């Protein structure tokens, strides 16, 4: 990859097949950014354990399904390094060393810490790993000396945490780690089938890899304006998740006509849903066609991940040598291949 380009790093938890919300929230931005950045895209399988250590038997399947969706959506292994976090042990070493200098209070004040504890109160996640995940996340970024991390506005505090960790380390041991900047990217939050945020935890998603028939059936089942009982009743599109998806995926001129017809009661919900289904299946067709070729050749996916791990290990090796030297630790020879 051309060395003159700035370096960017990002990742996703190993959660399996992706849905429209994942695509519009991050993946479509990644595809665009790989044109201008040296990109490192990581499958965060260790991070998946912070809240899901109870069930790991299907982790390999989830990793494979997610990477297939990445590739089908347009991530290019010739332009980006695509790898699995646990395939590069340097992440764990740097996380351990950063944990030695990260104050406990910083971790307890991370905005998402108490929020996730409340959301998943039925699970026992009062663990060292869950409390310390921001340190591991910082290591993921700092290992590659990335200058940019693409995030939405709500994720800026996570990047700031990484900057603080780097700043503290550099203050103690000298200027070794690169403080990354948050690269604010457009991130659309999509409504799900039930009107809530599209999320696997709500079971209200439209998957990138499902069939067109499944997508059509799901859209037919979507909730709409509850006050609109009959076809000719005036509607309120601002509260309708079907219209919310039209605003993202339909042409601007058509969105305007749909809104007018809904408010006037001249466009029925059945017809509105049918048009949305047609639009979405057309938008997703290139991804779904490309996806099948990767599904049919899993050995190609494995090869991409193996090559990505080697490239990531080599890139991180230089950082770890500098970190060990700065901390006056014994320098060890890291493997060149995974």
Explain this structure.
- This protein has 338 residues and is mainly alpha-helical.
- It folds into 2 domains: 7-189 and 297-326, HUPs (Rossmann fold); 209-293, Tyrosyl-Transfer RNA Synthetase, CATH 1.10.240.10.
- It contains 14 helices and 5 strands.
- Strands 1-2-3 form a 3-stranded parallel sheet.
- Helix 9 links the parallel strand 4 and strand 5 (181-184).
- Helix 4 (90-99) packs across helix 8 (133-142).
- The longest helix is centred in the C-terminal third of the chain and has 29 residues, at 298-326.
- The relative contact order is 0.14.
- The mean pLDDT is 93.
Give a summary of the structure in a few sentences.
This protein has 14 helices and five strands.
Fourth CATH level, the homologous superfamily of the largest domain:
HUPs
Total domain units: 2
Proportion of strand residues: 5-15%
What can be said about the biggest beta sheet? 3 strands, parallel
Put simply, the count of helices is 14
Succession of helices and strands: EHEHHEHHHHHEHEHHHHH
Q: Which CATH top level class of the largest domain fits?
A: Alpha Beta
Helix content: 40-55%
Low-confidence stretches: none
Radius of gyration: 22 Å
Chain-averaged pLDDT: 93
């Amino acid at each position: 990859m051309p060395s003159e380009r700035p370096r960017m790093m990002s990742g996703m938890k190993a959660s399996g097949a992706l849905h429209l919300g994942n695509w519009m929230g991050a993946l479509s931005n990644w595809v665009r950014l790989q044109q201008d950045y040296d990109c490192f895209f990581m499958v965060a399988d260790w991070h998946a354990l912070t809240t899901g250590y109870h069930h790991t038997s299907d982790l390999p399947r989830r990793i494979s399904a997610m990477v297939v969706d990445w590739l089908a959506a347009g991530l290019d292994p010739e332009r980006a390094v695509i790898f699995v976090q646990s395939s590069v042990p340097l992440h764990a070493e740097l996380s351990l060393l950063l944990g030695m200098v990260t104050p406990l209070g910083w971790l307890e004040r991370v905005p998402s810490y108490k929020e996730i504890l409340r959301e998943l109160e039925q699970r026992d996640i009062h663990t060292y790993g869950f409390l310390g995940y921001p340190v591991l996340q910082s290591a993921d970024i700092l290992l590659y000396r990335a200058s940019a991390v693409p995030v939405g506005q709500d994720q800026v505090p996570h990047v700031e945490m990484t900057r603080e960790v780097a700043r503290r380390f550099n203050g103690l041991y000298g200027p070794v780690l690169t403080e990354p900047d948050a690269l604010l990217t457009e991130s659309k939050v999509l409504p799900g089938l039930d009107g809530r945020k599209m999320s696997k935890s709500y079971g209200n998603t439209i998957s990138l890899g499902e069939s067109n028939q499944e997508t059509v059936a799901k859209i037919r089942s979507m909730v709409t304006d509850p006050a609109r009982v009959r076809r000719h009743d005036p509607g309120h599109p601002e509260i309708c998740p079907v219209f919310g998806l039209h605003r993202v995926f339909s042409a601007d001129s058509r969105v305007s006509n749909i809104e007018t017809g809904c408010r006037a009661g001249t466009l029925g919900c059945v017809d509105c849903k049918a048009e949305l289904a047609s639009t979405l299946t057309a938008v997703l067709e290139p991804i779904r066609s490309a996806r099948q070729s990767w599904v049919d050749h899993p050995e190609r996916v494995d090869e991409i991940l193996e090559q990505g791990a080697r490239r990531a290990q080599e890139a991180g090796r230089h950082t770890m040598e500098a970190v060990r030297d700065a901390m006056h630790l014994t320098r060890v020879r890291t493997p060149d291949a995974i």
